[in-house]
Amino acid sequence: MFELRLRTAGAVPDDAPVVLVPAFDAPVGSVAVLSVAADGPTRQRVVAVGLGDRDTCDPRRLRVASMTAGRALAAEPEVATTLPSVLGDTTAAILVVAEGFSVGRYRYRGGVDAELTLCLGSGTGGEPDAPEVARALEVAGTAAEAVEWVRRMVDTPPSDLTPAVFAERIAERASAAGVKCEIWSGDRLVAAGFGGTLGVGRGSAHPPCVVHLWTGAQATDPAPVLGLAGKGITFDAGGINLKRDPDEIAWMKSDMAAAAAVVAAVCAAARLGSVRAVHAVLPLAENLPGPGSLLPGDVVIHPDGSSTEVLDTDNEGRLVLADAISFLVGEGVDGVIDVGTLTDGGGVGHLLWGCWGTSDRLIADLLAAGDRVGDAGWHLPLREEYAELFASPVADRSNRARDVPDIGLTAATFLSRFPRGVPWAHIDNGGTAYLGADLPPWAAGPTGSPTRALLELLLEPDATVYTQ
Ligand code: MN
Ligand code: MN
């Protein structure tokens, strides 16, 4: 794991080996080595990153340029940059550059420790020693490290990240952040009624478990508690409905990306002093065909006592999320956000997660948070009538929509039965969590989405009471 040290300075240090500068009117994200200054104390390379048209430059474009520069300079241990100057050295610009550059540097193998010095012009918004500059660097560093942890978890070979191992990794991270953590397995899971999760894990030699994280208010504190649920399928072979497409099954180690994102956001928020009270539930399981696997036609019972007929064992994510949502609702949370790599993310591409739900306010807050930090989503509609597609003659519902393709909308429709009046938002990060090919400024592989959006929401100062 690389460690990036961020610091600010009033001017470019003479001994900086690499100086990263903005280049207006060059294509956004283009990178060029401009010159080598050999007359200083050390050889200094000047690297320019394109920002497009000066008049329309905004934080979003600055983030893309910073990520691209981070990626291009990933092997450099020391970089100084004047990039925040393009938006007046504001704390927002400082945060965007520090975070974007750090996120862009991610490599699963061969990351190097590095120091990024942000060179701020005098007389502008960002004085190097100002407390708000220190806070921006703290948020940027913590957020970038959270995103990196998610990507590292996703990139870990699935046999090295079984449900039990993943749970341990989560517990270590929670402990370091001062977040309370419990791991439930075996009889404890049976007693809590996590029938979907137990069912999904039945075909694997590595049994399922559920991780609980708590932050914020005590039981006696009336502050609203936000419930978070994250799908943690450490490998999804599809179960008995085995995935037959080699191009699809090849990246199914990423099916735990949502659980990792929820954990990373909750722990980072705690480190940054978030006042939000959170209860997160992460069901972890391996979905394999095996002697004990769920069979199409089996019925599982969720914590709310309702039943689901499993017509397709490859629709396992909604089974474990149904457990988590119904458990959280039973615990009396005041709002629920669930996250899962369920489908292609609602068909809105690899740069937007799909979002459905019952609380326009919660969804609006989530979308605004994601937009601010370059981890954006898109609100898609639910229609009550589609629930009929899940009718089952032997259970309260089935897990596969009848006679229509299974898409983000149908997965969200299935889940919409579980919040039972509690304000709810569902994020499908199946499009954004893992890229099969480069999509600049992102490299192929895990992105960490929607960690950054969730963290931004949790850092909002008011514990909003959401309404339907
Ligand atoms: Mn599946
Ligand atoms: Mn899956």
Short description:
The protein has 468 residues and is an alpha/beta fold. The protein is 31% helix and 23% strand. It folds into 2 domains: 3-147, Leucine Aminopeptidase, subunit E, domain 1; 156-458, Aminopeptidase (3-Layer(aba) Sandwich).
Beta content: 15-25%
User: Which percent range fits the helix content?
Assistant: 25-40%
For this structure, the CATH topology of the largest domain is Aminopeptidase
Shape: elongated
Overall CATH architecture of the largest domain: 3-Layer(aba) Sandwich
Offer a few descriptive terms:
12 helices, Leucine Aminopeptidase, subunit E, domain 1, binds manganese (II) ion, Aminopeptidase, 31% helix, 2 domains, alpha/beta
Molecular structure report:
The protein has 12 helices and 20 strands. It starts with a strand and ends in a 10-residue tail after the last helix. Strand 12 (about 300) and strand 13 form a beta hairpin. The protein folds into 2 domains: about 5-145, Leucine Aminopeptidase, subunit E, domain 1 (3-Layer(aba) Sandwich), CATH 3.40.220; about 155-460, Zn peptidases (Aminopeptidase). The longest helix is centred in the first third of the chain and has 25 residues, at about 130-155. The strands form 4 sheets. Strands 7, 8, 9, 10, 11, 14, 15, 16 and 18 form a 9-stranded mixed β-sheet that branches. A 6-stranded mixed β-sheet has the order 1-6-5-2-4-3, with helices on one face. Helix content is about 30%, strand content about 25%. The protein is elongated and about 80 Å long. It has helices spanning about 60-70, 90-105, 130-155, 165-175, 185-190, 195-200, 245-250, 255-270, 315-330, 360-370, 410-415, 450-460; strands spanning about 5-10, 20-25, 30-35, 45-50, 80, 115-120, 180-185, 210-215, 225-230, 230-235, 275-285, 300, 305-310, 335-340, 355, 375-380, 395-400, 425-430, 435, 445. The protein has about 475 residues and is α/β, with parallel strands linked by helices. Helix 4 runs parallel beside helix 8 and helix 8 (about 255-270) runs parallel beside helix 12 (about 450-460). One manganese (II) ion (MN) binds near residues 233, 236, 255 and 317.
